[in-house]
Design brief:
The protein has about 300 residues and is an alpha+beta fold. The protein is about 60% helix and about 15% strand.
Length: about 300
C-alpha cells in the first residue's frame, strides 16, 4: 500500500510539473502576441522569474513531503517490528508457564522435580515482569521523563550483584570478568541505575556466544564515574551506532532475525543516562563484539 501511495504521489508530481510548463508556455505566447520587442523582453524575464520561484517552491515541497513520507515508512516498520517482537516475547514465557502448571496439576512429581519446574516458572515470570517494566518505563520517559529520587548508591555492589543474578537466570555458559573498583558511590536514582544495568548486561548476555567472555568495568576518577559492559558477540556496525538508541530500532527484520527483543532496552538506557547528566556510547570490541560505555560527571 505504501509503495502504491509513493507511485501515485510521483505521478501527480509529474502531472503538476507538465501542467506548469504548459502554463508558462501559454503565458509567454500570449505576451509575445500583444507586446513589442522591448516589452516582450521584460515580460519574458518576468515570466521566467515567476516560473523559477514556482519550481523552487514545488521542488522544496516535494523534498519535504518525500522525507516526511520516508520517515513515516520507517516509523511504521519499527512499530510493526515492535508488535511482532512483543507478541513473541509475551507468548513464549506464557506458553512455558502454562506447560509447567499443567505438568504440576496432572502429574505427581518428586520434590526435586517440582522444585526445578517451579524455578523455571519463576524465571519465566521474571522475564514477563522485566518486559512489562520496560514498556511502562518507556511510556513514563516519553511523557515527562522518569521522576528521579537521588540517593547515595554503592555502584560497585550493585553492578556485581546484578551481573551475577542475570548470568544465573540466563543459563548461559559465559565467563564474566570483573574490573570493578571497590566502594564506588554515586548520587543517583537506584531504580533507574538498576534498569540501566539490567538492560546493558542483558543485552551483552543475549548476543554473547556460548563460552565467550563479558567484561564488566567500573572506575571513578575525581568527579567522573564510568561503567562499561563489553561482549564478544556480532557487534554493531558503524552506521548503526546512533540508531540503536532510537525507540523500537532493531537491526534487520523481525520475522527473520535470530535474536528477539522489543527495541526498548537501549532507548531506555540512553534516556536514563541523560537524565543523570551522563552520556552513553558504543564502541567496537576487538576482535569482535561491542563495548557500551556510560560516563557521568
Amino acid at each position: 500500500m505504501k509503495r502504491k501511495n509513493l507511485i501515485l504521489f510521483t505521478v501527480l508530481l509529474v502531472y503538476v510539473s507538465l501542467q506548469s510548463v504548459w502554463w508558462l508556455y501559454n503565458i509567454y505566447r500570449l505576451s509575445a502576441q500583444v507586446t513589442d520587442a522591448t516589452d516582450m523582453d521584460r515580460k519574458f524575464y518576468m515570466i521566467l522569474g515567476e516560473g523559477g520561484v514556482f519550481f523552487i517552491i514545488l521542488f522544496t515541497g516535494f523534498l519535504l513531503t518525500y522525507r516526511s513520507f520516508n520517515k513515516e515508512i520507517q516509523v511504521g516498520n519499527q512499530q510493526k517490528n515492535f508488535l511482532l517482537a512483543i507478541t513473541h516475547e509475551l507468548k513464549t514465557p506464557i506458553a512455558s508457564l502454562k506447560l509447567y502448571l499443567q505438568t504440576l496439576l496432572k502429574r505427581t512429581l518428586n520434590p526435586s522435580k517440582q522444585e526445578e519446574i517451579l524455578n523455571r516458572s519463576v524465571k519465566d515470570a521474571d522475564r514477563l515482569n522485566a518486559l512489562v517494566e520496560n514498556i511502562l518505563l518507556a511510556t513514563k520517559i516519553d511523557d515527562n521523563g522518569l521522576p528521579l529520587n537521588p540517593e547515595r548508591i554503592n555502584l560497585s555492589e550493585m553492578m556485581e550483584k546484578v551481573t551475577l543474578d542475570m548470568l544465573e537466570s540466563s543459563g548461559k555458559t559465559v565467563d564474566v570478568e570483573f574490573f570493578i573498583e571497590p566502594e564506588v558511590y554515586f548520587q543517583g536514582d537506584k531504580d533507574a541505575f538498576y534498569s540501566i544495568l539490567i538492560n546493558l548486561i542483558g543485552n551483552a548476555l543475549k548476543y554473547s556466544p556460548e563460552k565467550s567472555s563479558i567484561c564488566v568495568t567500573l572506575v571513578q576518577k575525581g568527579k567522573e564515574t564510568a561503567l562499561s559492559i563489553s561482549d564478544e558477540g556480532p557487534g554493531v556496525s558503524m552506521d548503526e551506532t546512533e540508531k540503536i538508541f532510537d525507540k523500537f530500532y532493531r537491526s534487520g527484520n523481525e520475522e527473520t532475525r535470530s535474536q528477539k527483543g522489543t527495541g526498548l532496552g537501549l532507548y531506555i538506557v540512553k534516556k536514563l543516562v541523560e537524565q543523570h547528566n551522563g552520556m552513553i556510547q558504543v564502541k567496537p570490541n576487538v576482535p569482535s563484539g561491542s563495548i557500551f560505555v556510560a560516563s557521568f560527571r
